[in-house]
Amino acid sequence: MNRKKYTIFDIVLLLVMIGVVILTLYPFLNILAISLNNAIDTARGGIHIWPRDFTFANYIEIFGSNDRLLQAFLMSILRTVVGTITGIIASTMLAYTLTRRDFVFNRQVGFILVLTMFISGGLIPDYMLIRELGLINNFMVYILPLLITAFNVIIIRSFMDNIPIALMESAKMDGANDFTIFWKIVIPLSLPVIATIALFLAVSQWNMWFDTYLYARANENLTTLQFELMKILDNANISSGDITQGNAEIVAGQTSPQSIKMAITIIATVPILLVYPFLQKYFVTGLTLGAVKS
Amino acid sequence: MSKQIHLGEGEPVVPAGGAPIGLDKKPNRKLKKKSFWKRVKSQKALILMALPFVIWLLVFKYIPIAGWVMAFQNYKPQNGFFNQEWVFLDHFKELFHEPMFYRALENTLGMGILGIVFGTLSAITFALLLNEMRFVWFKKMTQTISYLPHFVSWVIVANIVTTMLSQEGPINTLLMGMGIIDNPIGFMSNPDMFWGIVTVSDVWKETGWNAIIYFAAMAGVDPQLYEAAKVDGASRWRQMWHITLPSIRPVIIVLLILNIGNLINIGFEKQMLLGNNIVADKALVIDLYALNYGIGMFRYSFGTAIGIFKSVVSIVLILIANGFAKRVGEGRVF
């Protein structure tokens, strides 16, 4: 391309894109400002991207005096960590057996996996299974049903396919067994794709609320941040702002549901914000590759 | 190794004729052939590595499919698996006589179609604009920011949307400040606006993410084409229209087919989180309907029948879309 000469076209484009950026970021900034604003003052409305009456009270409320929300926060972290680690172990192992074309059951295992991308039992049969397995109100309901996603395994397998087979063969010559090859050669060489899938798994674990709603509602110890937020939202929807039983306990002292709601939203957003920009390079290629394969 | 998976420089994103689904065989990766049992014996470690997950797949993915028989019974959990009353197609007959079901179907297809149309248009437009950006630093930043909403949950997005659209929220404040309206609009309590709100929220959340694949495809367009067009005096608009868009047509078609196949699988998250009693009529989608009847009212068999109906429609839709693409001679999925 020739040296940059910016035209009207470039300037208009820039302005449009600035508009897109504002449209994307404004809601987050607005919520951040409300979460940092004095709760009573918030009710007056009119807060944009800067708090009017600055305070950390809403956050202190969540982490300090509200056991339920602190517990929910810790549970969200726990399920994210455990779910991501188990998910990575499961999908990389399965992907490795699929990348080994000499594996006796390669095609059968591949078929069983890929078919799940096209048909699924549906909501009710899934629910009945979880019930029969005794996973209702059990922490494992956050981990077991989400262990493997065919799409993720296929992305990992496509990546592993590019590892030179000579590496594995020479290791075999040196007497390494298949598991050693997986652990010592394949895993270290697959770190970029593992980072991508770990991000996908962590985000979906962190964001999940529906399994709590459906399977773990009755066990208060298993509540998560997203579920608590969903409950507040639900109450607000039903009674359009009235304080109902569900969130009455959260409304203690001078904080209003609105500010607490926004503070929870920010707490639920920040971890994602801290992680995804650094993995961008990986998930962009991972996603394009996965889309090509499927 | 990473250069092989890196798309965008010169490689077409989808091979002509569409990528085959499933596991392609690469003969060069085969090790020496041995007899079956010898291979089983020497591959104990591999078998042990796959086995737990094959069992997992059978339990968590295939048992629910086997659970479809529930739709043909009057399933009662206390009776065990072999003592159920068979009613064959009764639940389906009942379903097709239920006005609520048609409302759910209408809402699902309505929001599904709006989602595909505006989701695809916004993603392609965004990718096109991004592709034309010359300020490299700003381009990268825009791209990163555009992914953010994809990574936050629908709970958060619903929270954001209700805040933005509330009576004293920014949208109403802005509209009143500009003198367009005198009284705040009750967006969330107007049933006629519900489909639109869901669609706009979806576009806000997913445009940046959905644009990734189009953007990658655009990066793979042969630069010589643009050079040639420039020589012919084509403006940037004409280059976008006559080179960039036609070049990514196979990608657009493949994604459209996949989306049409999923038309009925729009889920229920948005509708459940954004909906309320006032707009319930417009928010009831098939999955919510199955959830309310199947689990809420313990009508497991009826709920399963709804699920089967959904799967059948989904398969029919993808076959139709695929056949259509085949007809017009474009990249297809199968």
Automatic annotation (TrEMBL), chain A:
Q: Which Gene3D superfamilies does the entry link to?
A: MetI-like
Which BP terms from GO are recorded? transmembrane transport
Provide this UniProt record's keywords sorted from A to Z: Cell membrane, Membrane, Transmembrane, Transmembrane helix, Transport
Q: How does it sit in the membrane?
A: Multi-pass membrane protein
Q: Does the keyword Manganese apply?
A: no
TM spans (from-to): 7-29, 73-97, 109-130, 142-160, 181-203, 260-279
Main location class: membrane
Which residues does the UniProt record annotate as the domain ABC transmembrane type-1? Answer: 73-279
Give the UniProt entry's GO cellular component terms.
plasma membrane
Please indicate which superkingdom the organism of origin belongs to.
Bacteria
Q: Which residues form a coiled coil?
A: none
Q: Which PROSITE patterns match?
A: ABC_TM1 (PS50928)
Q: Where in the cell is it found?
A: Cell membrane
Q: Which InterPro entries match?
A: MetI-like (IPR000515), MetI-like_sf (IPR035906)
Q: Which family is this sequence assigned to? A: Belongs to the binding-protein-dependent transport system permease family.
Write down what this protein is called. Answer: Carbohydrate ABC transporter membrane protein 2 (CUT1 family)
Q: Which organism is it from?
A: Paraliobacillus ryukyuensis
UniProtKB/TrEMBL annotation, chain B:
| Cellular location(s) | Cell membrane; Membrane
What sections of the protein cross the membrane?
Answer: 45-71, 109-130, 248-268, 300-325
Q: What is the organism of origin for this protein? A: Paraliobacillus ryukyuensis
Q: Where is the ABC transmembrane type-1 domain?
A: 105-321
How is it placed in the membrane, per its record? Multi-pass membrane protein
The reply to whether Membrane figures as a keyword in the UniProt entry is: yes
Q: What does the sequence similarity comment in the record state about its family?
A: Belongs to the binding-protein-dependent transport system permease family.
Entry keyword Nucleotidyltransferase: no
Which Pfam families does the record associate with it?
A: BPD_transp_1
What this protein is called in its record is Carbohydrate ABC transporter membrane protein 1 (CUT1 family)
